[in-house]
Amino acid sequence: MLAPQGKRVKTDARDANMIAQCLCYGGYLAVHVPTDKDDSVKEYLRMRDDHKLALKKIKQQINAFCLYHGFFYDGNRWTIKHWN
């Protein structure tokens, strides 16, 4: 709902007229209101991403610690072969 810059006075009548015009001419778009399930999925994905980032940081810290103390490994890190 865009208002002209020169009209700074806010009145209910002007707002009602502007809303009616936007509804009449299709100025508003449909909005999806997320359900509780949508919110829980989004929260789970954010939590998963946070944990993946934390795991990545911890692995980098362990690698830096090992390199600092002279433990070198030429193969791929964080695999079953690496642990053995």
How would you characterize this protein structure?
It is elongated, with a radius of gyration of 28 Å. It has one domain (12-83). By secondary structure, the protein is mainly alpha-helical. The protein has helices spanning 12-24, 36-68, 80-83.
Topology:
Layout: H1 12-24, H2 36-68, H3 80-83
- Radius of gyration over C-alpha positions, nearest whole angstrom: 28 Å
The tally of helices reads 3
- Rounded to the nearest angstrom, the distance between the terminal CA atoms is 64 Å
In helices, the fraction of residues equals 55-70%
Write the H/E string, N to C: HHH
Our count of domains comes out at 1
Quick structural gist:
This protein has 84 residues and is mainly alpha-helical.
What structural keywords apply?
84 residues; single chain; mainly alpha; 60% helix
